[in-house]
Write a structure and sequence with these properties.
The complex is a heterodimer of chains A (about 170) and B (about 180). Chain A is mainly α and about 170 residues long. Helices cover about 80% and strands about 0% of the residues of chain A. Chain A has six helices and no strands. In chain A, helix 1 packs parallel to helix 3. With about 180 residues, chain B is mainly alpha-helical. The N and C termini of chain B lie far apart (about 45 Å). The chains are: A mainly alpha (about 170), B mainly alpha (about 180). At the A-B interface, helix 1, helix 3 and helix 4 of A face helix 2, helix 3, helix 6, helix 7 and helix 9 of B.
Chain lengths: ~170, ~180
Protein backbone atom coordinates (compact mmCIF):
# COMPACT_ATOMS: atom_id res chain seq x y z
CA UNK A 1 0.00 0.00 0.00
CA UNK A 2 1.09 3.55 -0.67
CA UNK A 3 1.97 5.95 2.16
CA UNK A 4 -1.03 8.22 1.43
CA UNK A 5 -3.48 5.37 1.84
CA UNK A 6 -1.66 4.09 4.94
CA UNK A 7 -1.78 7.55 6.52
CA UNK A 8 -5.51 7.81 5.86
CA UNK A 9 -5.96 4.47 7.62
CA UNK A 10 -3.74 5.60 10.51
CA UNK A 11 -5.71 8.83 10.96
CA UNK A 12 -8.97 6.91 11.31
CA UNK A 13 -9.43 3.18 11.91
CA UNK A 14 -5.89 2.42 13.07
CA UNK A 15 -5.92 5.12 15.77
CA UNK A 16 -9.42 4.21 16.86
CA UNK A 17 -9.02 0.43 16.77
CA UNK A 18 -11.66 0.07 14.08
CA UNK A 19 -9.65 -1.86 11.46
CA UNK A 20 -10.10 -5.52 10.69
CA UNK A 21 -7.20 -7.83 11.57
CA UNK A 22 -5.84 -8.10 8.02
CA UNK A 23 -5.83 -4.35 7.32
CA UNK A 24 -4.27 -3.68 10.71
CA UNK A 25 -1.54 -6.24 9.97
CA UNK A 26 -0.83 -4.50 6.63
CA UNK A 27 -0.53 -1.12 8.36
CA UNK A 28 1.74 -2.62 11.05
CA UNK A 29 3.95 -4.16 8.37
CA UNK A 30 4.14 -0.84 6.52
CA UNK A 31 4.97 1.07 9.70
CA UNK A 32 7.83 -1.25 10.53
CA UNK A 33 9.49 -0.42 7.24
CA UNK A 34 8.50 3.23 6.58
CA UNK A 35 10.10 5.93 8.70
CA UNK A 36 7.91 8.72 7.29
CA UNK A 37 4.66 6.96 8.17
CA UNK A 38 6.01 6.01 11.59
CA UNK A 39 6.72 9.71 12.27
CA UNK A 40 3.26 10.61 11.00
CA UNK A 41 1.71 8.10 13.37
CA UNK A 42 3.72 9.26 16.41
CA UNK A 43 2.92 12.93 15.79
CA UNK A 44 -0.72 12.17 15.24
CA UNK A 45 -0.94 10.30 18.55
CA UNK A 46 0.84 13.15 20.35
CA UNK A 47 -1.34 15.86 18.82
CA UNK A 48 -4.77 14.26 18.43
CA UNK A 49 -5.02 11.39 20.89
CA UNK A 50 -3.04 12.09 24.06
CA UNK A 51 -4.43 15.57 24.79
CA UNK A 52 -7.98 14.22 24.81
CA UNK A 53 -7.15 11.45 27.26
CA UNK A 54 -6.48 14.06 29.92
CA UNK A 55 -9.74 15.92 29.47
CA UNK A 56 -11.42 16.60 32.79
CA UNK A 57 -14.95 15.12 32.94
CA UNK A 58 -17.69 17.71 33.33
CA UNK A 59 -21.10 17.64 34.99
CA UNK A 60 -23.87 20.18 34.56
CA UNK A 61 -24.19 22.69 37.42
CA UNK A 62 -27.02 22.11 39.91
CA UNK A 63 -29.01 25.09 38.67
CA UNK A 64 -29.60 23.27 35.36
CA UNK A 65 -31.78 20.67 37.08
CA UNK A 66 -33.51 23.40 39.11
CA UNK A 67 -34.36 25.16 35.85
CA UNK A 68 -35.71 21.96 34.33
CA UNK A 69 -37.72 21.17 37.46
CA UNK A 70 -39.35 24.60 37.56
CA UNK A 71 -40.10 24.40 33.82
CA UNK A 72 -41.79 21.02 34.41
CA UNK A 73 -43.78 22.50 37.31
CA UNK A 74 -44.86 25.49 35.21
CA UNK A 75 -45.94 23.13 32.42
CA UNK A 76 -47.92 21.05 34.93
CA UNK A 77 -49.63 24.14 36.36
CA UNK A 78 -50.51 25.30 32.85
CA UNK A 79 -51.95 21.88 32.08
CA UNK A 80 -53.86 21.93 35.39
CA UNK A 81 -55.39 25.31 34.50
CA UNK A 82 -56.67 23.85 31.25
CA UNK A 83 -58.01 20.76 33.01
CA UNK A 84 -59.82 22.95 35.59
CA UNK A 85 -61.23 25.14 32.82
CA UNK A 86 -62.44 22.07 30.94
CA UNK A 87 -64.04 20.60 34.08
CA UNK A 88 -65.78 23.90 34.87
CA UNK A 89 -67.10 24.22 31.34
CA UNK A 90 -68.31 20.64 31.42
CA UNK A 91 -70.08 21.29 34.72
CA UNK A 92 -71.65 24.44 33.31
CA UNK A 93 -73.04 22.73 30.25
CA UNK A 94 -73.74 19.43 31.95
CA UNK A 95 -76.89 17.66 30.90
CA UNK A 96 -77.42 14.28 32.57
CA UNK A 97 -77.47 11.27 30.34
CA UNK A 98 -81.09 10.12 30.98
CA UNK A 99 -82.27 13.48 29.68
CA UNK A 100 -80.50 12.79 26.41
CA UNK A 101 -82.02 9.31 26.24
CA UNK A 102 -85.51 10.65 26.96
CA UNK A 103 -85.15 13.45 24.42
CA UNK A 104 -83.88 11.05 21.78
CA UNK A 105 -86.78 8.63 22.36
CA UNK A 106 -89.25 11.50 22.20
CA UNK A 107 -87.81 12.75 18.92
CA UNK A 108 -87.92 9.24 17.44
CA UNK A 109 -91.55 8.72 18.56
CA UNK A 110 -92.56 12.12 17.21
CA UNK A 111 -90.87 11.50 13.86
CA UNK A 112 -92.43 8.06 13.62
CA UNK A 113 -95.87 9.49 14.46
CA UNK A 114 -95.63 12.27 11.89
CA UNK A 115 -94.39 9.88 9.22
CA UNK A 116 -97.13 7.32 9.92
CA UNK A 117 -99.83 9.99 9.93
CA UNK A 118 -98.72 11.38 6.59
CA UNK A 119 -98.46 7.90 5.17
CA UNK A 120 -101.95 6.88 6.28
CA UNK A 121 -103.49 10.19 5.26
CA UNK A 122 -102.07 9.73 1.79
CA UNK A 123 -103.32 6.17 1.67
CA UNK A 124 -106.83 7.24 2.75
CA UNK A 125 -106.97 9.92 0.08
CA UNK A 126 -105.85 7.45 -2.54
CA UNK A 127 -108.39 4.91 -1.37
CA UNK A 128 -111.17 7.50 -1.49
CA UNK A 129 -110.16 8.40 -5.02
CA UNK A 130 -110.17 4.74 -6.07
CA UNK A 131 -113.55 4.19 -4.44
CA UNK A 132 -115.04 7.21 -6.23
CA UNK A 133 -113.57 6.02 -9.49
CA UNK A 134 -114.93 2.48 -9.08
CA UNK A 135 -118.34 3.85 -8.13
CA UNK A 136 -118.42 6.03 -11.21
CA UNK A 137 -117.47 3.13 -13.46
CA UNK A 138 -120.06 0.89 -11.80
CA UNK A 139 -122.78 3.51 -12.37
CA UNK A 140 -121.76 3.90 -15.95
CA UNK A 141 -121.77 0.19 -16.44
CA UNK A 142 -125.15 -0.29 -14.84
CA UNK A 143 -126.62 2.55 -16.82
CA UNK A 144 -125.58 0.97 -20.12
CA UNK A 145 -126.69 -2.55 -19.02
CA UNK A 146 -130.22 -1.39 -18.05
CA UNK A 147 -130.88 0.31 -21.40
CA UNK A 148 -132.29 -1.57 -24.45
CA UNK A 149 -129.89 -2.46 -27.22
CA UNK A 150 -129.49 0.39 -29.62
CA UNK A 151 -130.94 -0.12 -33.06
CA UNK A 152 -128.33 0.78 -35.52
CA UNK A 153 -130.92 1.55 -38.15
CA UNK A 154 -132.24 4.44 -36.14
CA UNK A 155 -128.90 5.98 -36.05
CA UNK A 156 -128.44 8.57 -38.65
CA UNK A 157 -126.41 11.61 -39.26
CA UNK A 158 -129.04 13.33 -41.39
CA UNK A 159 -126.90 13.96 -44.47
CA UNK A 160 -128.21 13.81 -48.10
CA UNK A 161 -125.71 11.29 -49.21
CA UNK A 162 -126.74 9.07 -46.34
CA UNK A 163 -130.35 9.36 -47.36
CA UNK A 164 -129.43 8.43 -50.92
CA UNK A 165 -127.71 5.20 -49.93
CA UNK A 166 -130.17 4.24 -47.27
CA UNK B 1 -23.79 2.24 28.56
CA UNK B 2 -26.18 1.17 31.29
CA UNK B 3 -29.78 1.26 30.20
CA UNK B 4 -32.60 3.04 32.00
CA UNK B 5 -35.33 0.62 33.12
CA UNK B 6 -38.70 0.57 31.41
CA UNK B 7 -40.51 1.16 34.73
CA UNK B 8 -38.64 4.42 35.29
CA UNK B 9 -39.43 5.61 31.77
CA UNK B 10 -43.14 4.75 32.14
CA UNK B 11 -43.34 6.45 35.55
CA UNK B 12 -41.55 9.54 34.21
CA UNK B 13 -43.83 9.73 31.18
CA UNK B 14 -46.83 9.54 33.55
CA UNK B 15 -45.54 12.71 35.25
CA UNK B 16 -43.43 11.38 38.12
CA UNK B 17 -40.70 14.00 38.60
CA UNK B 18 -38.60 11.68 40.77
CA UNK B 19 -38.33 9.14 37.93
CA UNK B 20 -37.54 11.87 35.45
CA UNK B 21 -34.76 13.06 37.74
CA UNK B 22 -33.28 9.54 37.63
CA UNK B 23 -33.21 9.75 33.82
CA UNK B 24 -31.58 13.17 34.13
CA UNK B 25 -28.93 11.85 36.55
CA UNK B 26 -28.10 8.98 34.19
CA UNK B 27 -27.74 11.05 31.04
CA UNK B 28 -27.10 14.71 31.85
CA UNK B 29 -23.33 14.23 32.13
CA UNK B 30 -23.06 13.18 28.51
CA UNK B 31 -25.57 15.77 27.30
CA UNK B 32 -23.80 18.63 29.08
CA UNK B 33 -20.29 17.46 28.10
CA UNK B 34 -21.16 17.15 24.43
CA UNK B 35 -23.02 20.48 24.46
CA UNK B 36 -20.10 22.21 26.17
CA UNK B 37 -17.44 20.71 23.91
CA UNK B 38 -19.32 21.27 20.72
CA UNK B 39 -20.41 24.84 21.45
CA UNK B 40 -17.38 26.09 23.41
CA UNK B 41 -19.65 27.97 25.75
CA UNK B 42 -20.80 27.13 29.29
CA UNK B 43 -23.96 29.21 29.12
CA UNK B 44 -24.91 27.67 25.78
CA UNK B 45 -24.19 24.20 27.18
CA UNK B 46 -26.40 24.81 30.21
CA UNK B 47 -29.18 26.17 28.03
CA UNK B 48 -28.89 23.24 25.62
CA UNK B 49 -28.98 20.73 28.51
CA UNK B 50 -32.06 22.42 29.93
CA UNK B 51 -33.80 22.59 26.54
CA UNK B 52 -32.98 18.96 25.73
CA UNK B 53 -34.48 17.68 29.00
CA UNK B 54 -37.58 19.88 28.78
CA UNK B 55 -38.08 18.63 25.21
CA UNK B 56 -37.62 15.03 26.40
CA UNK B 57 -40.07 15.51 29.27
CA UNK B 58 -42.72 16.85 26.89
CA UNK B 59 -42.25 14.02 24.37
CA UNK B 60 -41.55 11.10 26.68
CA UNK B 61 -45.15 9.87 26.40
CA UNK B 62 -44.55 9.29 22.67
CA UNK B 63 -41.40 7.18 23.27
CA UNK B 64 -42.12 3.73 21.85
CA UNK B 65 -39.14 1.69 23.12
CA UNK B 66 -38.01 0.91 19.57
CA UNK B 67 -34.52 2.20 20.37
CA UNK B 68 -32.73 2.87 23.63
CA UNK B 69 -33.83 5.97 25.54
CA UNK B 70 -30.20 7.00 25.98
CA UNK B 71 -29.60 6.90 22.23
CA UNK B 72 -32.70 9.02 21.71
CA UNK B 73 -31.60 11.56 24.33
CA UNK B 74 -28.03 11.68 23.01
CA UNK B 75 -29.28 12.16 19.46
CA UNK B 76 -31.42 15.11 20.51
CA UNK B 77 -28.49 16.52 22.52
CA UNK B 78 -25.94 16.22 19.71
CA UNK B 79 -28.29 17.69 17.12
CA UNK B 80 -29.30 20.60 19.38
CA UNK B 81 -25.65 21.29 20.22
CA UNK B 82 -24.69 21.17 16.54
CA UNK B 83 -27.46 23.59 15.59
CA UNK B 84 -26.35 26.06 18.27
CA UNK B 85 -22.68 25.64 17.34
CA UNK B 86 -23.40 26.31 13.66
CA UNK B 87 -25.36 29.43 14.58
CA UNK B 88 -22.61 30.64 16.89
CA UNK B 89 -19.92 29.89 14.30
CA UNK B 90 -21.64 32.31 11.96
CA UNK B 91 -22.09 34.96 14.64
CA UNK B 92 -18.66 34.78 16.14
CA UNK B 93 -15.43 35.87 14.60
CA UNK B 94 -13.16 33.56 16.39
CA UNK B 95 -9.70 34.49 17.56
CA UNK B 96 -7.67 31.38 17.30
CA UNK B 97 -4.85 31.28 19.76
CA UNK B 98 -4.10 27.74 18.96
CA UNK B 99 -0.36 27.93 19.45
CA UNK B 100 -0.73 29.02 23.06
CA UNK B 101 -3.14 26.24 23.79
CA UNK B 102 -0.85 23.77 22.15
CA UNK B 103 2.00 25.01 24.29
CA UNK B 104 -0.17 24.55 27.39
CA UNK B 105 -1.46 21.14 26.51
CA UNK B 106 0.50 19.04 24.06
CA UNK B 107 3.89 20.69 24.04
CA UNK B 108 4.83 18.51 26.96
CA UNK B 109 4.33 14.98 25.61
CA UNK B 110 6.37 13.56 28.47
CA UNK B 111 3.46 14.48 30.73
CA UNK B 112 0.38 13.27 28.88
CA UNK B 113 -1.60 12.85 32.08
CA UNK B 114 -1.69 16.63 32.58
CA UNK B 115 -5.31 17.65 32.96
CA UNK B 116 -6.93 19.60 30.19
CA UNK B 117 -9.60 22.00 31.25
CA UNK B 118 -12.41 23.32 29.09
CA UNK B 119 -10.59 26.52 28.09
CA UNK B 120 -7.62 24.60 26.69
CA UNK B 121 -9.89 22.14 25.00
CA UNK B 122 -11.86 24.97 23.39
CA UNK B 123 -8.70 26.35 21.84
CA UNK B 124 -7.46 22.91 20.89
CA UNK B 125 -10.65 22.20 18.96
CA UNK B 126 -11.03 25.73 17.61
CA UNK B 127 -9.78 25.01 14.04
CA UNK B 128 -12.53 22.45 13.49
CA UNK B 129 -15.94 23.15 12.08
CA UNK B 130 -18.97 22.04 14.18
CA UNK B 131 -19.37 18.74 12.29
CA UNK B 132 -15.71 17.74 12.65
CA UNK B 133 -15.73 18.95 16.21
CA UNK B 134 -18.74 16.83 17.18
CA UNK B 135 -17.12 13.74 15.65
CA UNK B 136 -13.87 14.40 17.53
CA UNK B 137 -15.69 14.97 20.81
CA UNK B 138 -17.80 11.83 20.46
CA UNK B 139 -14.83 9.69 19.47
CA UNK B 140 -11.80 11.04 21.32
CA UNK B 141 -13.43 12.27 24.52
CA UNK B 142 -16.64 10.28 24.91
CA UNK B 143 -15.13 7.13 23.40
CA UNK B 144 -18.03 6.21 21.12
CA UNK B 145 -17.52 3.76 18.26
CA UNK B 146 -17.88 4.83 14.61
CA UNK B 147 -21.19 2.99 14.45
CA UNK B 148 -22.53 4.79 17.53
CA UNK B 149 -21.41 8.17 16.18
CA UNK B 150 -23.03 7.46 12.82
CA UNK B 151 -26.24 6.49 14.64
CA UNK B 152 -26.29 9.63 16.80
CA UNK B 153 -25.51 12.04 13.99
CA UNK B 154 -27.60 10.04 11.53
CA UNK B 155 -24.85 9.98 8.94
CA UNK B 156 -23.00 7.28 7.03
CA UNK B 157 -20.13 5.52 8.82
CA UNK B 158 -17.78 6.58 5.99
CA UNK B 159 -18.75 10.20 6.64
CA UNK B 160 -17.69 9.72 10.27
CA UNK B 161 -14.36 8.36 9.04
CA UNK B 162 -13.88 11.24 6.60
CA UNK B 163 -14.71 13.88 9.22
CA UNK B 164 -12.33 12.36 11.74
CA UNK B 165 -9.57 12.11 9.14
CA UNK B 166 -9.97 15.77 8.15
CA UNK B 167 -10.23 16.91 11.77
CA UNK B 168 -7.06 15.10 12.79
CA UNK B 169 -5.14 16.34 9.78
CA UNK B 170 -6.24 19.90 10.59
CA UNK B 171 -5.07 19.53 14.19
CA UNK B 172 -1.81 18.04 12.95
CA UNK B 173 -1.27 20.87 10.46
CA UNK B 174 -1.90 23.48 13.16
CA UNK B 175 0.50 21.75 15.53
CA UNK B 176 3.18 21.49 12.89
CA UNK B 177 2.76 25.14 11.85
CA UNK B 178 2.94 26.19 15.49
CA UNK B 179 6.11 24.18 15.93
CA UNK B 180 7.67 25.73 12.85
CA UNK B 181 6.84 29.25 14.04
CA UNK B 182 8.60 28.68 17.34
Amino acid sequence: MKCKKIQNLIATGYLDGELDIHTKASVDAHLSSCEQCRMFYKTLVRVTVEPFKAVVPVEPPKEVWSGIESAIRREKEKRNIFITLKTNLQALFYIPKPAYVFATVMVIVLCAGVFTKIHFEKQELYQAYLDAESEAFAKLFNATADKEPIDNDDIGFGTTIEKYFM
Amino acid sequence: MQEISKEIIIAASAGDVGSFEKIYQATSGFVYAVALRVTNDREDAQEITQDVFIKIHKNLKWFQFRSSLKTWIYRIAVNTALTVAKRRAKERSRMVVYDDALANTIAAPENPAKEINQENLDVLLAPLNPQQRSCMVLRSIEGLSYKEIAGLLQININTVRTRLNRARRLLLARATDGGNKQ
